[in-house]
Automatic annotation (TrEMBL):
CDD domains: FBPase_glpX
GO CC term, one of those recorded: cytosol
Family classification: Belongs to the FBPase class 2 family.
Gene: glpX
Protein name: Fructose-1,6-bisphosphatase
Cofactor dependence: Mn(2+)
Record flagged with keyword Secreted: no
Length: 332
């Protein structure tokens, strides 16, 4: 194995942004056109192509599915300049080329293209099932909330740590029937709720961004999205716990193949995304963290974030794309 210090080269930050920009530009062409599969397909294809020019030997560990169900960016696929040639930094990659396919199809807020990168073995190999998630922002005592504690207890402890009342807290969760009980209990405790239609990567990340007003994220969503959110929180700060929600024996067997020995294990942030981690995302539609792609005939403007756990640096990048000089970015 190569020297781990070169695994996540800081110069890769802008390379990652190019990858998420490509996916976002392609997906944005499908905004509001009512076809979530076309939007997703365009993002996947553009992201896959963009990876061909990134100076890594990458392995997709969180991707579009198994090799037999996804033609591109499937779990185990090798990507990057050195993938075939050999050499280069060996890294693991987590992708969600379009986080918020339905949002994009409807022209709603908060869809984005995301990528995370870690040293080999850095990411939890999460099967494509649900994960129960609990997240709070930075600057709080370790273990202030716990996935095994009750909703009421978590709200009480969080309010105490923030020196506020429970009525000041905002809980973010996906608007799903399965969350009715959590919603009922949060409301009964006096907390306020922010329901999002989709896109729990940005829902979780919102706890680390004071501007969003979100204090805590609760509820279940995709496990792959949980790992991506964990990668982002490792960089931007915050606490998160996740528990895989296996629904049947088949899923447990699949989990075992992927290295999950205890189906009830509660994963910490570090267990989901450990070591030196980078996270990049480009907005497809506008949300609290990122502006969506803005098209203007001969070009487009993209807004991206890229961050790294080792340095804690968070960069926002505005890309001005000229379709006359870069026709590949113009994907109709
Ligand atoms: O819609 P479900 O089944 O509740 O799944 C929740 C998951 O779907 C999303 O809302 C959006 O996923 P897509 O991008 O695949 O549409 C994720 O952010 C979330 O983790």
């Amino acid at each position: 194995m190569a020297d781990s210090s070169v695994h996540v080269d800081r110069n890769l930050a802008l390379e990652l942004v190019r990858v998420t920009e490509a996916a976002a530009l392609a997906a944005s062409r499908w905004m509001g056109r009512g076809d979530k599969n076309a939007a997703d397909g365009a993002a996947v294809e553009a992201m896959r192509k963009a990876f061909d020019t990134v100076a890594i030997s990458g392995t997709v560990v969180i991707g579009e599915g198994e090799m037999d169900e996804a033609p591109m960016l499937y779990i185990g696929e090798k990507v990057g300049i050195y993938a075939k040639a050999g050499g280069g930094p060996e890294v693991d990659i987590a992708v969600d080329p379009l986080e918020g396919t339905t949002i994009t199809a409807k022209g709603g807020p908060n869809a984005m293209a995301c990528v995370a990168l870690a040293q080999k073995g850095g990411f939890l190999h999460a099967p494509d099932i649900y994960m129960d998630k609990l997240a709070v922002g930075p600057g709080l005592p370790a273990g202030v909330v716990n996935i095994d504690a009750s909703v009421e207890e978590n709200l009480r402890e969080l309010a105490k740590a923030k020196q506020r009342s429970v009525t000041d807290l905002v809980v973010c969760l996906l608007d799903r029937d399965r969350h009715k009980e959590i919603v009922k209990r949060c409301r009964a405790a006096g907390a306020r709720i922010m329901m999002i239609p989709d896109g729990d990567v940005s829902g979780v990340v919102a706890v680390s961004q004071p501007d969003t007003g979100v204090d805590i994220y609760m509820g279940s969503g995709g496990a792959p999205e949980g790992v991506l959110a964990a990668a982002a929180l490792r960089c931007i700060g915050g606490q998160m716990q996740g528990r895989l929600l296996f629904e049947n024996e088949e899923q447990i067997a699949r989990g075992k193949e992927m290295g999950v020995t205890d189906p009830n294990h509660v994963y910490t942030l570090e267990e989901m995304a450990k070591g030196d981690v980078m996270f990049a995302a480009t907005g497809v539609t506008t949300g609290p963290m990122l502006r969506g792609v803005r098209h203007f005939g001969s070009g487009a403007v993209t807004h991206s974030i890229v961050m790294r756990s080792k340095s804690g640096t968070v960069r926002y990048v505005e890309g001005h794309h000229n379709f006359a000089l870069k026709p590949s970015a113009f994907v109709a």
